[in-house]
Write a structure and sequence with these properties.
This protein is 81% helix and 0% strand. It has 273 residues and is mainly alpha-helical.
């Protein structure tokens, strides 16, 4: 699964770089999303595979904090990039005549920079908040990677401030991007319904199909993990369910974009030939 995820996402990045017809805002965001998915799986899966192979599940304090930081960075980046891609589709469908003016290279560059900066600051904030905590020795994390909540539960010092920061950042960086996606698609659906021809409606919907599938997969698995595991507090079920959005979702993204996207399929065909 890791090899498929790495190869599939890398192939999408190389295809977008190589084919000049794909040098558009939508595919610029897609290339960054694929890179983020590679980072997400590379943060957790190789260490898990090493633990299985070596039968040694020890991780140092420094490596644990580093893994947690890059995991938060990658997941935060996924949230923001999916929001930017929804906004790109909103402009393309609702304001097609002004698309090239609004989504100009400078503005797209600023959007990407904002996504990266916010993700870096978000991950850095939580990492610094964990560094202030005190931990006892010989701790065991009931997970296959250093997940923020699992690490906090092992602290010997007060974690109330950390919990407050988590609630605040989740509301700010979780709810706002999702609200942006929902708002964009509300406007998109409203505009599509005004199109008189069935062919025009299908064409408009097809341009959003791949992105919408990834949004449902990403948010569906993420919310499904936390909503299903919250009542039980079973660490094993949380770990198993977490595989869905840390391993399965990044693996499926390349298939969704290659199977449902005509431009990507044509560009891949040219590369293969």
């Amino acid at each position: 699964m890791y090899l498929v995820t790495f190869t599939g996402n890398l192939l999408i990045i190389l295809t977008i770089i190589k084919d000049s017809h794909l040098h558009t805002p939508m595919y610029l965001f897609l290339a960054n999303l694929s890179f983020s998915d590679i980072c997400l799986t590379s943060t957790t899966v190789p260490k898990m595979l090493l633990n299985i192979q070596m039968q040694n599940r020890v991780i140092s304090y420094e490596h644990c904090i580093t893994q947690m930081y890059f995991f938060l960075l990658s997941t935060g980046l996924d949230h923001f990039l999916l929001t930017m891609m929804a906004y790109d589709r909103f402009v393309a469908i609702c304001h097609p005549l002004h698309y090239t003016v609004i989504m100009n290279p400078r503005f797209c560059g600023l959007l990407l920079l904002a996504c990266w900066l916010l993700s870096v600051l978000h991950a850095l904030l939580h990492a610094l908040m964990v560094l202030r905590l005190f931990f006892c020795t010989e701790l065991e994390i009931s997970h296959f990677f250093c997940e923020l909540n699992q690490v906090m539960q092992l602290a010997c010092s007060d974690t109330s401030l950390n919990t407050l920061v988590i609630y605040f950042t989740t509301g700010l960086l979780g709810v706002i991007p999702l609200s942006g996606i929902l708002f964009s698609y509300t406007k998109i659906v409203s505009s599509i319904m005004k199109i008189s021809s069935a062919g025009g409606k299908y064409k408009a919907f097809s341009t959003c199909g791949s992105h919408l599938s990834v949004v449902f997969l990403f948010y569906g698995t993420t919310f499904g993990v936390y909503l299903s595991s919250a009542p039980t507090k079973n660490s094993r079920s949380i770990a198993i369910a977490s595989v869905m959005y840390t391993v399965a979702t990044p693996m499926l993204n390349p298939f969704i974009y290659t199977l449902r996207n005509k431009d990507i399929k044509q560009a891949l065909g040219k590369i293969c030939r």
